[in-house]
Amino acid sequence: MSKIIIKGGQSLSGIVKVSPAKNAVLPIIAASLLSKTPCLIEEVPDLADVRTICSAIEFLGARVEKEGAGLKISTPLVESNEAPYEFVRKMRASFLIMGPLLARTGRARISTPGGCAIGTRPIDLHLKGFCLLGADIKQGQGFIEARADQLVGSRIYLDYPSVGATENIMMAASMARGATIIENAAEEPEVVDLSNYLNTMGARIKGAGTKIIRVEGVEELTGSEYSVIPDRIEAGTFLAAVAVAGGDVVVDNVISGHINPVLAKLQESGVDVEDGEGYVRISGDGGLLPTDIKTMPYPGFPTDMQPQLMAMMVLAGGTSVITETVFENRFMHVNELKRMGARIKVSGRTVIVQGVEKLTGAKVKATDLRAGAALTIAGLAAEGTTEISNIYHIDRGYEKFVEKLKGLGADIIREE
Ligand code: UD1
Q1: How far is the CA of 108 from the centre of ligand 1 (A)?
Q2: Which candidate, 51, 191, 337, 369, has a CA 20 to 30 Å from the CA of 383?
Q3: Model pLDDT for residues 30-43, shown as the tens digit of each residue
Q4: Are 368 and 332 contacting, i.e. CB atoms less than 8 angstroms apart?
Q5: pLDDT in the model for residue 132
Q6: Nearest C-alpha to atom 17 of ligand 1 is from which residue?
Q7: By alpha-carbon position, which residue is closest to atom 11 of ligand 1?
Q8: Widest CA span of the chain, in angstroms?
Q9: The whole model's pTM is what?
């Protein structure tokens, strides 16, 4: 089993370049199924999740070819209407195939994703959307099937601004007859990026990035060339790492407007942050003030940065309160951080962190993707050696994570 081994105590310096956003590229790859002609996605990060979604669309008949740092996706013909369990089991985001597959062929059968470590993660809002667009939904043993000879535009109110539901509905509605209005839509930058991509393919979508998205259905979408936004969570992860380890680093390829709440929290905790053009420079000596965090849908503080910020707060000089409102079980990193000496109490969806002066390296395991990032951050600051197992979680969403941290001077290796 692969491991990451870190000897803590090195400060970080230099420049690190952020990769294209995982959570933008996954729906964009799924959306490529909507076109009969080839799509070119320039620069695609080399991640396990990207490989999973590519295998899933290849299974349906798409041809995925490397083109430089990007991918060319051609689907002249859809050969299967079914995404089997082996893909959805590996990655819940495989469910994003449902919207485009339904719109393209009138039928989509996807294995049910089930729960995952961070929560039950239902898909009721995705299905509510497809249903309102006129699809017949059948739920069987372990699968969901949607059928519609012709999707018809509709008004869809989301009870919660779900990122995945907004994306799935937007993709399906882009080839429906007539107009669709998605109300209480998710406003995440990745939703905007998908909308921009669909529009380059000929879709007519307005309002992405606001609570109301209007999609005017078109008959056909065609291939286009597209460049994906940088990964705001990867950027935030490096910033948190420098905040804890100390040093002076330029995090390059950042749209700082996408990480305002993270920058605000870094500043509140006493770190120096310079918001440059396309980059953020961060410097500090590792000394941190406590700060409270409450996760919320965008533009609130992102749940995907909660574990990393917790890893910072365990070393702050005082008490911080962290509240998780997006997922009901996203505190699995707490017990692992405690094994390194953190003082944390969990009470329902709230965590109270009492900062300690030092952490001590230990053997810990990554329980999910961002938990793995948090443990790495803690390991950079801990005294002695930290050994992180189950790092396949980290491989799902961080490209060359160990190499990038090593490039900044961290004493970190990966052992296969
Ligand atoms: C996406 C991101 C994930 C991030 C999350 C929240 C991708 C591939 N993943 O996940 O990294 O943590 O947004 O920012 O982009 N919900 C329902 N019913 C639904 C759908 C969701 O109740 O039909 C609930 C979920 O259980 C959760 C909340 O809504 O409590 C947010 O989920 P959602 O925004 O859908 O997250 P994902 O799209 O799965």
Answers
A1: 21
A2: 369
A3: 999 999 999 999 99
A4: yes
A5: 98
A6: 122
A7: 304
A8: 63
A9: 0.97
